[in-house]
């Protein structure tokens, strides 16, 4: 099956710093989503981005499908950005997401 | 529009028992998927239901089963619980056609003792 790798596995930032999270995948994908898992376990949708670039406030994402990677940018980080960020992809089979292992982000004051 | 809801939110069971978890999708969504999250294995796909039919299944033993009702609500059942079944169980729903963006519920945290 498809492999999804995320880097870095852990990231510690000071409030106000910028960061880039990466997601590499081993095969062509139909869909790609970025999620933020809050401390209570809920997965919050950040982006649905099988290709191209999207922006939402301080967050933006870019997927280069031909090169099989996606990037999530967080600018001016805040403590509320802390948590685990997951990339998930879907190949051929609708509604079956394969998740990466996540990037654990801690934003300190 | 209300989000995906899951009940119960927390559950403690004993080895050998069985458990049923419930998921109500976003109104209008007909696809419901279930995922298991553990520290060791991460987030793994269990199965997906669409129009009351299981459309996809992950690599889990037959003790894990599910069903979907005509109103798109879904249940999953785990029989003969094992300690390793302790996990966060997440349900997601999506629209029938593209985009196939999935929206997740808050999860049910199951502890097996």
Provide a brief overview of the structure.
Chain A is built from no helices and eleven strands.
Secondary structure layout:
The complex is a heterodimer of chains A (109) and B (113).
Chain A: E1 4-7, E2 10-14, E3 19-25, E4 31-37, E5 43-48, E6 52-56, E7 59-64, E8 69-74, E9 83-90, E10 98-99, E11 103-108
Parallel strand pairs in A: 2-11
Antiparallel strand pairs in A: 1-3, 3-8, 4-5, 4-9, 6-7, 7-8, 9-10, 9-11
Chain B: E1 5-7, E2 10-13, E3 19-24, E4 31-38, E5 42-50, E6 53-57, E7 64-68, E8 74-78, E9 87-94, E10 103-104, E11 108-112
Parallel strand pairs in B: 2-11
Antiparallel strand pairs in B: 1-3, 3-8, 4-5, 4-9, 5-6, 7-8, 9-10, 9-11
What separation lies between the terminal Cα atoms of chain A? 41 Å
Shape of chain A: globular
Distance between the termini of chain B: 37 Å
Number of strands of chain A: 11
Order of H and E elements of chain A: EEEEEEEEEEE
The tally of beta strands of chain B, per DSSP, is: 11
Order of secondary-structure elements of chain B: EEEEEEEEEEE
Beta-strand fraction estimate of chain B: over 45%
Largest sheet report of chain B: 7 strands, mixed
Shape of chain B: globular
Percent in helix of chain A: under 10%
Low-confidence stretches of chain A: none
Rg of chain A, Cα atoms, Å:
13 Å
Biggest interface reads: A-B, 22 and 27 residues
Runs of chain B in which pLDDT lies below 50 for 5 or more consecutive residues are: none
The helix/strand class of chain A is mainly beta
The overall average pLDDT of chain B, rounded, is 95
Overall pLDDT level of chain A: 95
Determine the number of helices of chain B (DSSP H or I, runs of at least 4 residues): 0
């Amino acid at each position: 099956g498809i492999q999804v790798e995320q880097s870095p596995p852990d990231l510690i930032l000071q409030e106000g710093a910028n960061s880039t999270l990466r997601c590499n995948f081993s095969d062509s994908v139909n869909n790609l989503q970025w999620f933020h898992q809050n401390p209570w376990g809920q997965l919050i949708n950040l982006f649905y981005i099988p290709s191209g670039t999207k922006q939402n406030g301080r967050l933006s994402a870019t997927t280069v499908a031909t090169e099989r990677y996606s990037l999530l940018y967080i600018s001016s980080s805040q403590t509320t950005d802390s948590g685990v960020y997951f990339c998930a992809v879907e190949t051929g089979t609708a509604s079956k997401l394969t998740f990466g292992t996540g990037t654990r982000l801690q934003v300190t004051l | 529009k209300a989000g995906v809801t899951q009940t119960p939110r927390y559950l403690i069971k004993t080895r050998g028992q069985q458990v049923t978890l419930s998921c109500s999708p976003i109104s209008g969504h007909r696809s419901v998927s279930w995922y298991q999250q553990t520290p060791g294995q991460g987030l793994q796909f269990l199965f997906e239901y669409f129009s009351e039919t299981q459309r996809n299944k992950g690599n889990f033993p037959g003790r894990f089963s599910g069903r979907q009702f005509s109103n798109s609500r879904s249940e999953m059942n785990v029989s003969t619980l094992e300690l390793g079944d302790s996990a966060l169980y997440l349900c997601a729903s999506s629209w029938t056609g593209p985009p196939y963006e999935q929206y997740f519920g808050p999860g049910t945290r199951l502890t097996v003792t």
